[in-house]
Request: fold
Amino acid sequence: GAPQQYGAPQQYGAPQGGYPAAPGYGYGGAPDPTAPYGRDPSTGEPLSDKSKLVAGLLQIFLGSLGVGRFYIGDNTTGAIQLGLTILGYITAIFLIGFVIIFGVAIWALVDGIMMLTGSVRDKNGLKLGN
Reply:
């Protein structure tokens, strides 16, 4: 093409000054109102605003308190994990509490790994983002 002149009129939609178009969400660089946090590259379904990395790590390290589940909006499962952990500490004097605490810890670890692998969805049923 011909060299651009400063101040020369440009065609509507033409690239300006050799800068690349600003990246957007989804495909084609345009924001997608149906998938504001992007789409899964393999299935094309909208992604959650919650990160699977953050959710998984929270669940692995603080999962006995239900933190990873609370993060993705699954308050019911989070409350069950938290409640069982509290019950475990209260009943630890009777030794059964240690079994409960250990059980919830294993559940939280497996749950965290499942979050990291993308097997768990957020409260809206969306796959966790990257």
